[in-house]
Write a structure and sequence with these properties.
By secondary structure, this protein is an alpha+beta fold. The protein is 19% helix and 25% strand. Strands 3-4-2-1-5 form a 5-stranded mixed beta sheet, covered by helices on one side. A hairpin with a 3-residue loop joins strand 3 and strand 4.
Length: 114
């Protein structure tokens, strides 16, 4: 009788499973993430991560600072690599700048926050 009632469990996508480098699944590292972090009060911090390592981050930061009239720094993170931090909410400015400069395409930018 147990052979007649065979239970089939459908295969489900596991979001916590490690993704292979060769697979074209979600979680690929093609995106440039532009995030905002709230500091204290009205102060905020914009972070840019996921740029290719072939670019000179200090030169990009210098252009950001001149273009947006803000201060910033390049931070080395063990997991994320080099991350550019800018003062203020510069998400839209950064995304427009990266597209106009030809560094990334518009569909490769992910804006996060608020």
């Amino acid at each position: 009788m147990s052979s007649d009632l065979e239970i089939q469990i459908p295969t489900v996508f596991d979001p916590f499973k490690e993704v292979d480098a060769n697979s074209q699944g979600t979680g690929s590292k093609d995106y440039v993430h532009v995030r905002i972090q709230q500091r204290n009060g009205r102060k905020s911090l914009t972070t840019v991560q996921g740029l290719k390592k072939e670019y000179k981050f200090n030169k990009i930061l210098k252009d950001f600072k001149k273009e947006f009239c803000c201060n910033g720094t390049v931070v080395d993170d063990s997991e994320l690599g080099q991350v550019i931090q800018l003062q203020g909410d510069q998400r839209k400015n950064v995304s427009q700048f990266l597209v106009q400069a030809g560094i990334v395409k518009k569909d490769q930018i992910k804006l996060h926050g608020f």
